[in-house]
Amino acid sequence: MKLSFTKMQGAGNDFVVLDETQRSLDLSAAQYRWLADRRFGVGADQILTVRPAPSAQADQADQVDQVDFEYIIHNADGGEVEQCGNGARCFARYVFDKGLTPKKHIRVLTRAGVIAPQLQEDGRVTVRMGCPRWQPGQIPFDALGLHSRAQHQDTLWWLPQEPQAVDAQRGDDGLGAWLSVVSMGNPHAVQRVASVQDAPVAMQGAWIEQHPRFAQRVNAGFMQVRSRSEIALRVYERGVGETLACGTGACAAVVSGIRQGLLDTCVDVHMPGGMLTIEWRGGAADEVLMTGPAQPVFEGTIEIPDSV
């Protein structure tokens, strides 16, 4: 199968973008994995698919009303996921640049709900990412029996490295981690660290991502607070590993920091691939705003081998 694609990146988080507005490509999980492979395919953290707005069904008419497109995301492991913030910015840039819409402010349906990206005059893109959620069942996160402690308006949960060791020693001894757990349409577990440079992202990120307390796995964030308006962040993404940037991870970290009384309502998030600006007023009904770059890298066609 031969298909056309566009390679894009947002703060170093890179994507292969596919256009299904005219026809469905009907790719398998194995084919998505192949496309994302940096040795045999194009190479990407995620594959983003542009689809036309779906027809409203009776049980979802309110959700798809006035939606411009549907946004589908597959991780590098081939699995479909609910949301990708950096990808959302690239999605908005792509549909405008390709002439799929003349609008700079669109509404897009994702598995997590409707988001609203808007192209700015300076070339950056702002996305209304929806409202954060903290109830364990909404993430989903099994908190039953785990130790917890209040931190201002937030709750920190002690996640033992050994799944059965609920009563394991709690502290900075490598046996576990204190985490703030939040959903930004996809699950995130954020911990505060003294230095992102020295944080054990590869080691801790891997076991946190796969921990059985998270039924759908989880994205692990490592946040260093530099000031009330600035943090540094590294994210170990589920199904991908550590990436240069994670938009929903930046949102989750800022939301957690605000709820813990550490941050103000507008925060610059510095990640290895670049900077995002996150805004949140702090209320349960307040949407999170994310602003950052979205850039095309190159375009091409590629033949997916029949053996894939």
Helix and strand layout, with pairings?
Elements: E1 2-10, E2 13-19, H1 29-36, E3 46-52, H2 61-64, E4 69-75, E5 80-81, H3 85-97, E6 108-110, E7 113-119, E8 125-128, E9 148-151, E10 154-160, E11 176-183, E12 187-192, H4 201-209, E13 219-227, E14 230-237, E15 241-243, H5 247-259, E16 266-271, E17 274-279, E18 289-292, E19 295-303
Parallel strand pairs: 2-3, 4-6, 12-13, 14-16
Antiparallel strand pairs: 1-2, 1-19, 3-4, 4-5, 6-7, 7-8, 8-18, 9-10, 10-11, 11-12, 13-14, 14-15, 16-17, 17-18
Pathway: Amino-acid biosynthesis; L-lysine biosynthesis via DAP pathway; DL-2,6-diaminopimelate from LL-2,6-diaminopimelate: step 1/1
GO molecular function, one term: diaminopimelate epimerase activity
EC number: 5.1.1.7
Total domain count: 2
Kindly, what is the distance between the CA atoms of the first and last residues, rounded to a whole number of angstroms? Answer: 10 Å
What Rg is obtained from the alpha carbons, in whole angstroms?
A: 19 Å
Number of strands: 19
**Structural class assignment:** alpha+beta
Q: Mean pLDDT, as a whole number?
A: 94
CATH class of the largest domain: Alpha Beta
